[in-house]
Amino acid sequence: MLRPRIIPCLLVRDKGLVKTTKFKDARYLGDPMNAVRIFNEKEADELMILDIDATMQGRGPDFEMIEHWAQECRMPLCYGGGITTSEQAQRIFALGVEKIAISHGALKNPSIVTELAEKVGSQSVVIVLDVKKKLFGGYEVYTHNGTKGTGKNPFDLIEEFQKLGAGEIVINNIDNDGVMKGYDLTLMEKARKATTLPLTASGGAGTMDDIGELIKKFGIIGAAAGSLFVFKGKLKAVLINYPALREKDELNKKFFPKQ
User: Fold this and answer.
1) What is the pLDDT of residues 51-98, one digit of tens each?
2) Distance between CA 43 and CA 196 in Å, rounded?
3) Are 182 and 188 in contact (CB under 8 A)?
4) Is the pLDDT of residue 259 over 70?
5) What is its EC number (predicted)?
6) What's the first-to-final CA gap in the chain, in angstroms?
7) For position 248, which CATH number holds?
8) Which residues contact 229 (CB under 8 A, 6 or more apart)?
9) Residues with catalytic annotation?
C-alpha cells in the first residue's frame, strides 16, 4: 500500500553535517555517518544526502564518501551534489545508492535525465528544484546554493523533466529553509498540478503537524525535512531524531485516513 514518505534530508559541507537557514549561515552539526546510523536505528522511510558545495566548487561527487554512506545505510538512499554526467551517476548507483538527485546538472544538460532513465529506470532519477519567491509574484528556480537565478519557472521545468523521463520531483523552498514554520502549501499545490510524478516537499517543517498538514492536503507525498530531524527544542540543541513507527501510524490516521 502506498503511503506518504517522511524523509530526513542531510546537508554535507567539507565532509561534515551542516544545517542552513535560507541556504545561508551553515551550522556545523558533526559527522554525517553518525546521523546515518541513528536513522538506521529509527527505521527512516528513506534518506536524502546532499553535498551542497559540489556545484559551487565546480567539482564532482566524492565517491569515497558516498560509498561509506551507502555501505552503512539500511534504508533507500538518495544522493545529490556535483552530478553532471551519466557516468558519474552510474558509478554512484554501483556503490549501492538507490536514487540520484540532479539539479544544476539537469538544467545545464537536460538530456542526462533521459539517458539515465533509459539506463537505470525513471524511479531512480530525482530532480531537485531550489525555488524562491519572486519580488513581484511567482517563483523562480535557483542554482549554486540559491545564489544564481535561472530565470526559469519551476512549473514549466517540472513538466519538461517529466517528459524527459524523471521519476520524482523534489521542491526545495529556499525562503522556508531552516525557518521551521511550515511548508509553502501554495507552492506545492502548483507543483502538484504540473505533474503526475511522485512529489516531495522540502523546506519549512518545524513540527510533525507541519508534515501532517502536507499529507492532509496532498495524500501520497514525500515530506523531507532537515532542521526538524537534527534539532530539538527552542534553543535548537543538536539531537538526531525521527518519529517512531507508532507516531507515523498516528500521523497517518489523523491526516491521511484513506488507507
Assistant:
1) 999 999 999 999 999 999 999 999 999 999 999 999 999 999 999 999
2) 28
3) no
4) no
5) 4.3.2.10
6) 8
7) 3.20.20.70
8) 8, 39, 240, 241, 242
9) 130
CB count within 10 Å of CB 98 equals 18
The closest of 166, 167, 230, 171 to 12, measured between CA atoms, is: 230
Number of domains in the chain: 1
Please state the pTM of the whole predicted model.
0.96
**Are the beta carbons of 62 and 155 closer than 8 angstroms?**
no
pLDDT digits (tens, 9 = 90+) for 226-251: 999 999 888 789 999 999 999 998 88
Do residues 52 and 11 make contact, with C-beta atoms less than 8 angstroms apart? yes
Cα dist from 20 to 91, 146, 181, 240, whole Å: 29, 12, 15, 16
Q: Which domain holds residue 194?
A: 5-255
